[in-house]
Amino acid sequence: MQVAEVKAMACQLPAELAVPLSRWSCPDLAHEAIARGLVPAIPASTIRRILAADTIKPWQHQSWIFILDPDFATKASRVLDLYARTYDGEPLGVDEYVVSSDEKPASRPAAAATPPWHPASPA
Is residue 68 part of a domain? Predict the structure, then answer.
């Protein structure tokens, strides 16, 4: 196993290696080490032990996500225009508003598992 190469990879931002991640995790590093041919197979727990030996914590460093979508600039410009209060190149009027919603709302497992609270009835 190429321990030094695994550590070196962990010390680089994923985007520098053309990996579409904002930060490394041990499973991501294990997958990438295998993909790059550094090792034939390696579990994330071994990566964790290798990095812990030198107190390397790549998951504490974040970078921008490497954009893979060729239409990203077009899609992003639509959103940025709305932030600038323009639509199709025309400014929005004072009585026009932008309403947005998340495509995938955050899950609320705790709320679903907890029954709703009702005030006690007066005795």
Answer: no
